[in-house]
Write a structure and sequence with these properties.
This protein is 67% helix and 0% strand. The chain is built from 7 helices and no strands. The radius of gyration is 15 Å and the shape is globular. The model has no long low-confidence stretch (mean pLDDT 94).
């Protein structure tokens, strides 16, 4: 019997997603509006958004950072945002991996000075032009949560 994938809620199961929603709601917007926009932007059904299996995740979280470091070193920033979106939506060979995309964006947000890349990626995934000031507020909430 094949094991069914477990649903992934980006606003509950990801600290970055949780903080995006919190800042979004502080601006008097609804979760439903952001979720609907994300599903439209990614062309995914809610049922397609699942956790990546641990075995796959371990492999991907080694290979993707290596790939992104190479792109950062060659200053190929546009391809990073494009690649993160591709990871989020999946393709014929790979299922959608929004959980991995958000984890990679957390890594970029906290470890690099790439606000434009992170903002571009999040705006594309969520279908909303967030802007850098929004991202700065998300980062502040994220850091506040980490510090307790």
């Amino acid at each position: 019997m094949e094991k069914q994938p477990f649903p992934f809620d980006p606003f509950v199961d990801s600290l970055l997603g949780e903080k995006i929603l919190a800042v979004w709601q502080l601006d008097h917007h609804s979760k439903d509006k952001l979720e609907t926009s994300m599903l439209r932007a990614t062309n995914l059904a809610k049922e397609q958004i699942c956790f990546t299996s641990n075995a796959n995740k371990q492999v991907l979280m080694v290979s993707y950072p290596k790939e992104f470091r190479e792109k950062i070193n060659s200053q190929d920033y546009d391809s990073i945002a494009k690649r993160i979106f591709e990871i989020a939506i999946g393709n014929d060979e790979k299922p959608p991996a929004l959980d991995i995309a958000l984890e990679l964006l957390e890594w970029l947000l906290t470890g690099f000075d790439l606000e434009n890349v992170v903002e571009q990626s999040l705006s594309k995934i969520f279908g909303v032009p967030f802007g850098i000031p929004f991202l700065e507020r998300v980062r502040a909430e994220y850091i506040k949560e980490l510090r307790g």
